[in-house]
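User: Before I run my own analysis I want an independent prediction to cross-check against. Here's the chain; please return only the structure tokens and, at the end, one sentence I can use as a sanity check.
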Amino acid sequence: MPKRLVNKNILLGVTGGIAAYKSADLARRLREAGACVRVVMTQKAKEFITPLTMQAVSGNPVHDDLFDLQAEAAMGHIELARWADAILVAPATADFIARLRQGEANDLLTTLCLAASAPIALAPAMNQAMWKNTATQENVQAVQDKGVKMFGPDAGEQACGDVGYGRMLEPLELVKQLSELFETKMLTGVNVLMTAGPTQEAIDPVRYISNASSGKMGYALAQALTEAGAKVTLISGPVSQRTPEHVTRINVISAKEMYASVMNHVHDNDIFIGVAAVADYRCKTISSQKIAKTSEELQLVLERNPDIVASVAQLDKKPFVIGFAAETENLISHARAKLFRKKLDMIIANQVGGTETGIGSDENAVTVLWCEQQQEFKRMSKQKLARELVSLIAECYKIKNDELRCLSA
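Assistant: Structure tokens:
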């Protein structure tokens, strides 16, 4: 079962064809692959399979009405379009493909396809004569020219008794092809070292100083980097996140341990990304025994921890260095100052404190700064944001490498 769908938000569209009976198994298979699935059904689709069935297998309420005020209050159609990492319409009838080509928005599913920026894939299912019809083939070519992916159809015996192309692909094959949409190969052959999570700075054997970092952003980036073809080594502080497939994870506790591990591995890497929320200070003296509660006050003497991302940027043969800046005020000015002071190639800044994004949240909004440029990414899931960031990182890394090659020529 492909792992590239883990934590992906998949919008499954079901239209009115006999192959809709396979959509229930498809939803189940997508969830087995780790995806979060929401189902949108056309009115005709409900004549072949019930919304209750699709709700049971997807684990979420079914969406079927463009003007459902109750659904709009929970997750409006525009929000649903933004939520999706990919849209898969299976089955996609000849009628739906024709309406999609024309840009119609006369039901919820076509409206979502128009509003979404996520990749769209269709799994055609229809009679073989309908599939071969010139009008259908022209419609298929037209939507493909607009970037819509076509999964199938397959050939074989059909429900009407005809034999030929028009059968919807089997659910497992659809899951496989959908997962391949998330393979970009932008960073094939590139070695990436990154840090994620918090560090814990001991006070005594049972107490420590730390922060609220969950590691979600770092682990989402690690997954997106592997999808882009990179070989990723992740040095992680203590978190409960699952290690993405094909990522080499090294566990550390303190900032000093993270620093040592980074310096031990950085020379073999092309890109370094410092996502970890590293403690700026540690206790100068760590008590060997648990400190007893004997007074109203306890004073701790703190000393600076090494600045990991700045240290990497100062290396003679440094990689492409990307830092993160979590700020509570003056986001852009503070981030840009860090970018130049630490001699980074790029910095990713996000506002924290009193917001619904950032530390511990499932969503984030950031501004990326490099050279004299900057790009803002609005609030979205950390998984989707990670893929957007990796695309920008790959572009900037390639430009930097091209510039270095020109200088050395």
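Sanity check: The chain has two domains: 9-180, 191-408.
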